Amino acid sequence: MKPDPELYDYWPYKNRPKIVWPEGKKVAFWVAPNIEFYELNPPVNPQRKAWPRPYPDITPYSYRDHGNRVGHWRLMDIMDEFGIRGSVSLSVAMCQHHPEIVEACQNRNWEFFSHGIYNTRYIYGMDEDQERSILEDSIKTVEAATGQRIKGYLAPALTHTEKTIDLLAEYDFWYSCDLFQDDQPQPLITSHSDKKLISMPYSLEVNDHYAFNVYGQSARQYADLLKRQFDQLLEEGAESGTVMCIPLHAYLIGRSHRIGPFREVLDYITAHKDDVWVTTAAEIAEFYRETYYDTAVEDIKKYKKGVSV
């Protein structure tokens, strides 16, 4: 086991090469609905239980099932209203369990990236061949259902191995959402120097799971948090382009008492038309890889203390 995973280098926020997003925009804004499937009785992982109580723990199971039955449809309507395409963090088994939802996203020209097969099957303890199977299944399943080759990855339930990031580069993924170290994209360190895998700013701090289930915020407090996050990133984006992601779970934000304040957030952010690039994670990754990746790698070398990138 490595004492340091060595996934990315230290790179101070100030005095980096300036990023300017397409059409001179200051903030690249994307929304990530987590469209997940939770099994009531998944295979046992020795390192983590799926549910806190003995089978059948139907309360948390049905609580999350609300998202697939109600919440996603409510959320899609709101995003349509403001012309926002989602970048779907997909439990790829949704392609079999609820193809109606996947089709509705596809019809909206939304992006899909992998969030594992089920959000109740964890990567902890998997060997390399098993993890490869997860990635290969994700690529194959989403491509068969939607025609899209997935470019991004968020590990199921944020579970990883030491090989996860390196395997993403090997399988030609463009971005990982599993690291939370920055407000701008950053090249990641892998053994595949010909690949351009980046860390895409996602967020735990403005994730609705943390807002509602960890911090105990109200819908109004969460809306205020999102607006303050946006205001700060917009101000800093004048100096160098920033990224704001809102990670969502429809069983949380899609509740009838929460969707109204969230609608106000989307109205507020998209009103800044001259400064905000409303886009998808794959489009951000594509632009960054083509425009800034090589410059960033060269700049990071200044902080490597004699070790070449």
From TrEMBL:
Domain of life from the UniProt record: Bacteria
Originating species: Temperatibacter marinus
Function text: Is involved in generating a small heat-stable compound (Nod), an acylated oligomer of N-acetylglucosamine, that stimulates mitosis in various plant protoplasts.
Database matches in InterPro entries: Glyco_hydro/deAcase_b/a-brl, NODB_dom
GO molecular function: hydrolase activity, acting on carbon-nitrogen (but not peptide) bonds
Name of the molecule in the record: Chitooligosaccharide deacetylase
Pfam family, one: Polysacc_deac_1
Domain NodB homology: 65-173
Family per similarity comment: Belongs to the polysaccharide deacetylase family.
GO biological process terms on file: carbohydrate metabolic process
Organism placement in taxonomy: Bacteria, Pseudomonadati, Pseudomonadota, Alphaproteobacteria, Kordiimonadales
